[in-house]
Amino acid sequence: MPASQATIHPHAGGYIEFADEIAKLVEDIPADVAGLCLDTGHTAYSGMDPVETLRRYAGRLDYIHFKDIDPAVYDRTMQQRIRFFDACGQGVMCPIGRGNIDYPAIRDLLIEIGYAGYITIEQERDPRNGASVLTDLSASRQYLTGLEFAGPG
């Protein structure tokens, strides 16, 4: 990725969210103009398989965000038909390893495609409920370390 290249981050609850919108984006914007920052939590939340989405756009990946989804909270919030950030406030995004995203398969895919870029672990929630963010991020990092994801100390 060139140092000055734009990177587009499809986001649940945003203007570019669903599979057809990402496909159109990739069709309309050349790789040398903009890469992708794909997010495991946003892709899963929006009905995509994160592993297959990362595989499909491996050649466009400039950056990745890691999250996990609590399936019970997800099912409940989908039935309530509430906004994405309201679902985050209810805890739909949980520490990595406690949700339904297949991180061993993601690790294997990233090794397979030779991904050497950055990955950010995120914990989205209602900002008024930020007391356990550090604990949750630590749990996510510990889980990923157990899967032998490499990264700086």
UniProtKB/TrEMBL annotation:
**InterPro entries noted in UniProt:** IolE/XylAMocC-like, Xyl_isomerase-like_sf, Xyl_isomerase-like_TIM-brl
Q: Which intervals hold domain Xylose isomerase-like TIM barrel?
A: 7-130
**Where are the annotated coiled coils located?**
none
Its domain of life reads Bacteria
Give the protein name, as stated in the record.
Xylose isomerase-like TIM barrel domain-containing protein
